[in-house]
Amino acid sequence: MSFVEIKKLVKSFGPEVAVAGIDLSVEQGEFVTLLGPSGCGKTTTLRCIAGLEHPDSGDIQIEGDYVTSVANEVFLTPEERNLGMVFQSYAVWPHMTVFDNVAYGLRIRRETRAAIKEKTTNALNLVGLGHLAERYATKLSGGQRQRVALARAIVYNPKVVLFDEPLSNLDAKLREQMRIELTRLQHDVGITSIYVTHDQTEALVMSDRVVVMDKGVIQQIGDPETIYAEPTNAFVANFIGVANLLEGKLLGHDGELTDIEIPIGDGSPSIRLRATGAEGAPVGAKIILSIRPEDILLHLEKPAEAMNLFEGEVIDTVYLGNFLDCQVQVGPHEVGVQIDHFEELETGQKVYLSFTPDHGLCLTE
Amino acid sequence: MATDTAAPQIDVAPPRGWRTWFTQENIITTIVGLIVAVAVIVPLVALVINSFLVLDDLGFDTEWGLQNYRDIFQGRVIKKALINTAIISTGCTILATLLGVSLAWINARTNCPFREQLEPFNLIPFFLSPFVGAIAWHNLASPKVGLLNNMAKSAFGIDFPLFNVNNLWGVIWVTGIFFAPLVYLFVVGSLRRMDPSLEDSARTTGAGLLRTTFTITLPLVTPAILSGAIIVFVTTAGEFGVPFKLSAPFGWETLTTQIFTKAVGDDANHYLGAAMSMVVGVVTAFFIWIQHRIIAPRSYTTVTGKGFRPNLIDLGGWKWLAFAYNVFYVCVAVVLPIICLFFVSLHKIWSGRIIWSELTFWNYQKVLFFWWPESIDAATNGIINSFILAFGGASIAMVVAIIVSYMIHRTKGYGARVLDFLSVIPIGFPGIVLAMGVLVTYIKTPIYATLWILLLGYITRFFPYGQRNISSIMMAVSEELDQSSRMAGATWLTTLRRITIPLLKPGIFAGWILLFVIFLRELSISIILYSAGTETLSVGVYYLSNFENEPMTSALSIAQTVALLICVVIFRKVAGKEALTA
Fold first, then answer.
1. Cα radius of gyration rounded to whole Å, chain B
2. CB-CB under 8 Å, A95 with B502
């Protein structure tokens, strides 16, 4: 059995279903991220684990013990669960010093004065705040408060640390830095972590496993590479990076490759393409082709030899510093292409697009 | 899990079933919630029931009927009282709103000289007793013993009384100047924190200063003005002391003075009193409902959280007129009344003029020296009782306020909404109405004629004031601060003690002092619920005033005023400038 086991978790707020039956297991020492747009139920799930919400049904076990079991009418209060949590607002108590903030959990646990001093100092050194112990929280910067909240959550060695979008209030530069530090810290301490975010970069960079959620349901669970390269449905493909999603029909299978056709309407012949995925689907099935903008090649002249070639018209280009974001009209579809070689592109210009079959992924509904 | 069965196996023995409900949080909040519900609802239900009981001619038996209400709307005396109440409330609302808005604007948005020094004085009437204000103005401007009238006579030989406050105009005047700070407090905050770019954009489109003020600034604070005006209207409708002192003895009764005569005295009829209270209560509750439901939610969000430096308007030479206007207000509302009371209190007999050779502190001995056999019991009891009630009442009310605020803002669900509603109700009912309900509820219980019934009345009527103080801070303090403590392993009570309450400390103390002040000067609840031995400070003043002993009345009034002024100073020290602004 896993370290944290969530079974059939359901939670509604009035008529609104926030979490619609979630099963999830987290191994000891693992860093798992719940990723999804706002309102997908990720924070509610986290708060159910914390004991801050009473779920409508389902069970949660930590280290084999039930902390929540609606059927058995078990509900441990948050303080009985021995977890740590880092909140979005950091929630550093303004009426206490940094030291008192971090030492709070240890004092609640009635540790000896010497142990409190030692553990608190260690935790503060770990997050690089040893020199600010006597300062009041109101005198700290956002990044420093974040570190206090982190030290406070890990100092009493909880079973699991829960993170509720902890980096979303920081500016971009600091966020990147904290991301690296958090990952390092998690690896050093080896504490089991469940992390909630809507930022896909955060999820992909930090996690051992990513849980993509939408509308209260888990869409996909997997390690970051799998989630990015092999999304199982259109939502995941679109949410993790911006993918082009084109609707089409499955024509047949050829070994590992799949033949498909994308209609572009108005009497024009459909585009026939080869891609991967949709292995089990029958011929004629409706599929969605997902291609990432950075995987599409853009040609100004029709290349002599290229797979999956089709043509379109440039409708917009946006200069984004290290690359160019180009929108190409292909029949009724707008296809986004990312290019790093800066050709002179004009609106209305005819261009050719291609991609290799392994970059096109067919998704079934 | 090894065995993937439908019903999970429990391997430890955790608390099961209904026992999981019994957490510290649930037990304590439920108990407090129930107490509040009973304290608020029972008197009002009793009031409704009693208002439909009609006393027979012999005064022994009652039967169900509508006769009480017929008496109110058909009986000559009561109908006239109803009309007088309407006139006074309307007049006072107009006067207080004009004063409050103009003073707030002068202080917040003009370069009126010394405005920072004047501001605290503008707020002093908010803390003082309007009843004492009425006594002071009676001695200043009643036809016979009015100091101003007599001074005009000796200085200019004016033979007829220049001023006469012993009528409805007098009541409107005194309530108007005393309730102006209510409007002021509502308006000054919105004026100060208004985003100046709203006005700047009007100026850039070509609107002049005055035009901007009247088309942008004032319309933006209209919801605040209306809120303040409604609170004043309701407060005046429930005001007892001022009409009782100034107009009732001269034939201008109001509903509150009529309720009072039906609650105590030879002609007591609790059932008719209850019906009259119902009439007042329905009207005031209706207005408060309008304020809460319709006006308050329409307040424009002109506050964006940033600290703004509001645009100040250069009044040029007119600034001295504004200054004079503000000084005039402080004089009539604070300085003149206190000086007058002080001089009256130094005479053995007050004849309307200061006799310098006969000044004495004898009255103060009579009303303050409780150890002295010749002291007046009603006064000395009043001082001791009022301090006990103010201290105990403010402390208990703040505990209730903290728990109720916690329930409203930190727990979700049905109980929170019910409590939110319950803590608005007492605000909708004037003290004298609620006291009437408390009286008919508890008259046959042992707490009648003790300090406990007063304490109960005070807390029920006024805990929402403390609750609002706490709630405004609790809304600003993130819930996550509490939750972090629970996550760190602290129980609900420990979290309350070590995180929640320390964070609310400024609000708790400000609320406590505010309630202390209110209880120290409370009249309209006390006057219904007191009995011999449980007089309060204001009841003592009433008692002395009943004997038409103005010097002694003034001495006790000055004592009360001094105590209240000390509280004001402490309040400003603790709570800071902005604490009162809504």
1. 26
2. yes
User: How far apart are alpha carbons A172 and A164 in whole angstroms?
Assistant: 18
Residues of chain B neighbouring A46 (CB-CB closer than 8 A):
none
Chain B, 142-161: which have a CB under 8 Å from a chain A CB? Answer: none
Listed by start position, the domains of chain A span 4-237, 242-363
Does A165 contact B at CB distance below 8 Å? Answer: no
- Same domain assignment for residues B481 and B506: yes
Query: Which class is domain A242-363?
Result: mainly beta
Quote the CA–CA distance of A232 and A361 in Å, as a whole number: 9
* Domain boundary, last residue among B299, B324, B349: B349
Check whether residue B318 and residue B368 sit in a common domain: no
What angle, 0 to 180 degrees and rounded to 10, lies between the N-to-C axes of helices B414-422 and B377-410? 150
Question: From A50, which residue of chain B is nearest by alpha-carbon distance?
Answer: B487
Give dist(CA B389, CA B296) in Å, integer. Answer: 33
* Gap between the Cα atoms of B432 and B426, Å rounded: 11
> Looking at the complex, does the CB of residue A71 fall below 8 Å from at least one CB of chain B?
yes
Q: The domain spanning residue B576 has which CATH number?
A: 1.10.3720.10
- Same domain, residue pair B195 and B332: yes
Same domain assignment for residues B408 and B429: yes
Asked if residue B305 and residue B395 are part of one domain, the reply reads no
Q: Is the CB of A149 less than 8 angstroms away from the CB of B494?
A: no
Q: What is the pTM of this model?
A: 0.77
**What residues of chain A lie within 8 A of the CB of B503, using their CB?**
93-95
Same domain for B433 and B527, yes or no, is yes
How far apart CA A100 and CA B231 sit, in angstroms, is 44
Q: Tell whether B197 is within 8 A of chain A (Cβ).
A: no
For residues B488 and A78, what is the distance between their CA atoms, to the nearest angstrom?
Answer: 8
* Residues B367 and B490 occupy one common structural domain: yes
Best residue in B473, B484, B493, B503 for a mutation probing chain A (most A CBs within 10 Å): B484
Contacts of B8 in chain A (CB under 8 A): 7, 59, 61, 66, 69, 71-72
- Same domain? For B317 and B386 the reply is no
Interface of B with A in 481-540 (CB under 8 A): 481, 483-492, 494, 498-499, 502-503, 505
Domain of B173? 44-51+66-349
Q: What is the mean pLDDT of residues A249-271?
A: 84
pLDDT in tens, chain B (582 residues): 344 444 444 444 444 556 677 788 888 888 888 999 999 999 999 999 988 988 877 667 778 888 888 888 887 888 888 899 999 999 999 999 999 999 999 998 888 999 888 888 998 998 899 999 999 999 999 888 888 888 888 888 777 778 888 899 999 999 999 999 999 988 888 888 777 777 777 777 767 777 778 888 888 888 889 989 998 999 999 999 999 999 988 889 998 998 888 877 667 788 888 888 888 888 888 888 888 887 777 666 544 444 556 777 788 888 999 999 999 999 999 999 999 999 999 988 888 888 888 888 888 888 888 888 888 888 888 999 999 999 999 999 999 999 999 888 888 767 788 888 888 888 888 888 899 899 888 888 888 889 999 999 999 999 998 888 888 888 888 888 989 999 999 998 999 899 999 988 878 888 898 899 999 999 999 998 998 889 999 999 999 888 878 888 999 999 999 999 998 888 887 766 555 543
Are A7 and B8 a contacting pair at CB < 8 A? yes
Q: Are A347 and A316 in contact (CB under 8 A)?
A: yes
- Comparing CB atoms, the residue among B1, B20, B487 nearest residue A83 is B487
Count CB atoms within 10 A of the CB of residue A360: 25
In a domain, B559, yes or no: yes
Residue B21 located in a structural domain? no
Residues of chain A neighbouring B18 (CB-CB closer than 8 A) = 73
With beta carbons under 8 A apart, name residues in chain A contacting B491.
77, 79
* Domain assignment of residue B8, yes or no: no
The closest of B463, B503, B511 to B482, measured between CA atoms, is: B503
Closest CA to B226 of B298, B178, B120, B160: B298
Of B487, B491, B499, the CB nearest to A50: B487
Cα–Cα distance, A144 to B87 (Å, whole number)? 61
In chain A, the percentage of residues whose pLDDT exceeds 90 is 34
CB nearest to A76's CB, from B8, B14, B488: B14
**What total of structural domains would you count in chain B?**
2
Q: For domain A4-237, is the CATH number 2.60.40.10?
A: no
